[in-house]
Structure formats: structure tokens, C-alpha cells
Design brief:
With about 500 residues, the chain is an alpha+beta fold. About 30% of the residues lie in helices and about 25% in strands. Helix 9 packs across helix 10. The radius of gyration is 23 Å and the shape is globular.
Length: about 500
């Protein structure tokens, strides 16, 4: 039985953008699983629902897989890592964007096929998942999960060459996908033709490593080599590294929200350091929406660098008056009405003396539904702030994301339904100002046409058949309800360390 973590689901933060996923891989190192474990630690911000590692050697022995619900530190213990032998490993941290949050849907996913053993970890979202799954099921494929990542396994496992072999099968995928695949002789890294999600290549000692973000290289002492190009497939085996470009050329459309919110500030994306880009966004925001104020207060963590840039540009004192609790974990029992605004206050607490009697500018990365922002304004008013001005380091979110960010339906996005003034009135702020797309792009120093900004402007680089997907996924939802709830095992449940795949 796969290791199942027994704690309760994490504290709900439905008012915030949901994280994506993080992938990591190592080829050719005696401590491949341990390095992957540390790499996942560095990528923990990209997903906190589940974590997993699959490992193997080139000796033909069965792969080892260990995964569970929870944070990396909760899922893995010394004995678990000791069982993950081999010189190759892939790892995954997950936040669900498709498929329910159960152990069966955690990754890596593994299978034994006519082509040999395979394991896959995926960051992104396939826009043609419903159509591919329906086609595969009509040909006899049996699915064990409700995640689109399993489709990749089924395509790679096809025993004939009608799709052009394993790499040719990848051409069937549409949407956002950064993949790491482990076979019996190799590690494969894949980035979709639009380059929507990041994936980087590095080296540690004589081993190759792949990671969603470069911050994981820093932790394990790996050297950053380069980013994978959009549409690139790298195959790493005993003969070295081979690069292929099997996809049809497409416009590069890197998700700009990686810079705004998702990526760690110490990562480099497409040659730009995330923290520097966020400072630049704050400067652009200050030039676009200046305000006379006494103090600039960031909303941690992703608002910190934008607030620094905003404060420096206007010469306003900076004060981190919101203090974040970093030790909440996944086990809080929600107190319903016992403590008002508990979900908001448990994360951030305000130092009242820093804002009392002052004109305050609050800098945050985004306003999605408005729940959190409204609570922040209430906190500041209660603490005696004279004025409260909100400044947001990205444009208003008006459209859903179909490429791996779990933004809600458009009608649930506050900026989709209301004007700026209506939003300001609802939040109880004295003013609100959003960064525009021009300023956001200038802050990166990169070309405008190289980004996906669909959640802001509705211009989707990859077509998405929402009606068909909804029809098929409604049928899938019935299947998901039949899956056992593996996030709430009985208290005396004893997990096992690993399984073979």
C-alpha cells in the first residue's frame, strides 16, 4: 500500500490563486532520491497537497515509489528515503488543478508496460485531456486516477509505433506541460511548444538534474546550465544528453504570473531574477498610481519585493507591518464562528503601532475574489489607520486560466464582475490601483509577445474547448466520487514505506 498521510486537509485559502505543481529529476547520482527530496523542499511553494518520489537504476530491477498527502517533511522520513535506491529519480509536489485531492491522484504516477517501466511527473494542464482520455478509453485503456497526467502515461505506453514511438506520442498533447519521465534506461524532460511552464537543466557533480525552478539547484549545489526551450525534449541516458524538438513551432507564451506570484524570489526565469522583476513591478506601479502616504506595507510573501520597489520609487518609508505565521501546517481545526475572520488572521497578524494614525499603502500581488483584501483593510481600520490605499502589482484578473493555475470561473473573479470603483468601495479602501500589462512586461525586460497573459486579457495562446471538456469531466466527477477518501485514514492506520511499480 502506498504511504497515506493521515492529517486533515490544509487550511482553506480559496481566496488566493492556487499553486501549480513542481517537478524535479536526477540522472546518474548514487544519492538520486535524496537530492530529489531536497529539490522538492525547494519547490514546496508550488504545491502543498502531496509529494512523491520514484527511483530506479539501470539494472532492470523494479522501480521504487513513495508518495503521500502532505508536505515534503511530512511524507518522507529517513527509512522512506533509504528504500528509494537507484541512480535515477523523479519527484513531484502537487496542488490539484485537475482531479480531486486524493492519494490516488498524487504523483509521480508509475506503470509497468510493454515498453518497460515508466514513471511521470507533470506540471501544467492539458487542454485536450478530455478528448484524449475518451479516445484512449474507447481503445481499451483503463484509468486509475482522475488527473490528466495519467493520459501521458497511457500515450507513452502504447505498444505499437502508430504514434511515432514514445516521443512521437507526446505530439498529441496540447496545453501546458513541463514533464519529467523516468524509463528503465533514461530520464526525459519535456516542455510544451508554447513554454507556458518553466523547466530548467542543471548539473551536480557528473549528474544531470531537471527542476521547475532554479532555486532547487542552489539548495543541492547544482550548476544551472540552461532553461529548456519551448517544445524541447531532452533525453538523458548513459550516452549523455540528447535534445529533440518534435513539436510543431508555436508562439512562445510563458506564464507571466510566475513572476508576479508563483515562483520563489531567488529563482531565475528566462534569465531574469524573480525578486528583481517584482521590485521593478513595484516601481512601475508607483509611477502609474502614485499616492501621498506615510508608510508602505507589503502583504507577505509575494508582495514584499513589489512593496520595496513602490516605496523606493516614491520615497515613502517601508514597514513590514503584517507578520506571517510560517508554522500553520495542515492540521488546524477550523473554529467556524468562534474567531471572526480566522482563516485570514491565522496567516497574517498586524503590528498596529506601525499603522496607527498613518496614511497606509498596502501592496499585494493580486486580488482574485477580494476576500483577503477586504479583511486586510478591516484590520488596518481597526488598528487606527487614517487612510488605506491598495496597490496591486499585476492587472485585474478577469479570465479563467486553463493552463495549470486554479483560478475560479470568470464570474467568481471580482474584477470580471465589477468596476475598479465598485471593487474599491467593496473593499473599503480609499483608493485602489492595479499595474497595467505594459508596466508588468517592462518590469521583466522581455518581449511582450513572449508571454501568456490570458488571465488578464483573455487572449489564450492554445485553444480550449470548454464545452466539451465540461461534458466529459462531469462524467469523470462521478468516477472521482467513487474513489476512497485517502486523506482521512483511521488513526491506527500504519503506512508502508514504499511500493514497486
Amino acid at each position: 500500500m502506498i504511504h497515506a498521510f493521515t492529517s486533515k486537509p490544509s487550511l482553506s485559502e480559496s481566496h488566493r490563486p492556487k499553486h501549480e505543481c513542481g517537478v524535479f529529476a536526477v540522472y546518474g547520482h548514487k544519492d538520486a532520491a535524496l537530492l530529489t527530496y531536497y529539490g522538492l523542499f525547494a519547490l514546496q511553494h508550488r504545491g502543498q497537497e502531496s509529494a512523491g518520489i520514484a527511483s530506479g537504476g539501470t539494472d532492470g530491477k523494479p522501480f521504487h515509489l513513495h508518495k503521500g498527502m502532505g508536505l515534503v517533511s511530512q511524507v518522507f522520513h529517513q527509512e522512506d528515503l533509504s528504500s528509494l535506491t537507484g541512480t535515477r529519480a523523479i519527484g513531484h509536489v502537487r496542488y490539484s488543478t485537475t482531479g480531486s485531492s486524493t492519494l490516488l491522484n498524487s504523483q509521480p504516477l508509475g506503470v509497468d508496460t510493454a515498453r518497460g517501466q515508466l514513471a511521470v511527473a507533470h506540471n501544467g494542464n492539458l487542454v485536450n485531456a478530455a478528448a484524449l482520455r475518451a479516445e484512449l478509453e474507447s481503445r481499451g485503456s483503463i484509468f486509475q486516477t482522475t488527473v490528466d497526467s495519467e493520459i501521458v502515461l497511457h500515450l507513452l505506453a502504447q505498444p505499437d509505433d502508430t504514434m511515432g514511438g514514445p516521443i512521437g506520442a507526446l505530439r498529441r498533447l496540447e496545453g501546458a506541460f513541463s514533464l519529467v519521465v523516468m524509463g528503465e534506461q533514461e530520464i526525459i524532460g519535456v516542455r510544451d511548444p508554447n513554454g507556458l511552464r518553466p523547466l530548467s537543466l542543471g548539473k551536480v557533480d557528473d549528474a544531470w538534474v531537471l527542476s521547475s525552478e532554479t532555486c532547487a539547484f542552489d539548495l543541492i549545489g547544482a550548476e544551472f546550465v540552461r532553461d529548456l526551450e519551448p517544445g524541447e525534449v531532452v533525453v538523458i541516458n548513459e550516452r549523455g544528453l540528447r535534445s529533440e524538438f518534435p513539436f510543431s513551432p508555436a508562439r512562445e507564451a510563458f506564464c507571466i504570473f510566475e513572476y508576479v506570484y508563483f515562483a520563489r524570489p531567488d529563482s531565475r526565469l528566462r534569465g531574469a531574477t524573480v525578486s528583481k522583476v517584482r521590485v521593478n513591478m513595484g516601481r512601475e506601479l508607483a509611477r502609474l498610481h502614485p499616492v501621498e502616504a506615510d508608510v508602505v506595507v507589503p502583504v507577505p510573501d509575494s508582495g514584499i519585493y513589489a512593496a520595496l520597489g513602490f516605496a523606493e520609487e516614491l520615497g515613502i518609508p517601508y514597514d513590514p507591518a503584517f507578520v506571517r505565521n510560517h508554522y500553520i501546517g495542515r492540521t488546524f481545526i477550523q473554529p467556524t464562528q468562534l474567531i471572526r475572520d480566522f482563516n485570514v488572521r491565522v496567516k497574517l497578524n498586524l503590528i498596529g503601532d506601525a499603522v496607527k494614525g498613518k496614511r497606509v499603502v498596502v501592496v499585494d500581488d493580486s486580488v482574485v475574489r477580494g476576500t483577503t483584501a477586504k479583511a486586510r483593510v478591516v484590520n488596518l481600520r481597526e488598528a487606527g489607520a487614517k487612510e488605506v490605499h491598495l496597490r496591486i502589482s499585476c492587472p485585474p484578473h478577469k479570465h479563467a486560466c486553463y493552463y495549470g493555475i486554479d483560478f475560479p470561473d470568470p464570474e467568481k473573479l471580482i474584477a470580471n464582475q465589477h468596476t475598479h470603483q465598485e471593487i474599491c468601495d467593496y473593499l473599503g479602501a480609499d483608493s485602489i490601483g492595479y499595474l497595467d500589462t505594459d508596466g508588468m512586461v517592462r518590469a521583466t525586460g522581455l518581449k511582450r509577445d513572449s508571454f501568456c497573459m490570458a488571465c488578464f486579457n483573455g487572449e489564450y495562446p492554445v485553444p480550449y474547448d470548454a464545452a466539451f471538456d465540461k461534458l466529459v469531466m462531469e462524467r469523470r466527477r462521478g468516477l472521482a466520487q467513487l474513489l476512497p477518501d485517502q486523506t482521512a485514514q483511521p488513526p491506527l492506520f500504519t503506512p508502508r514505506a514504499s511500493v514497486k511499480i
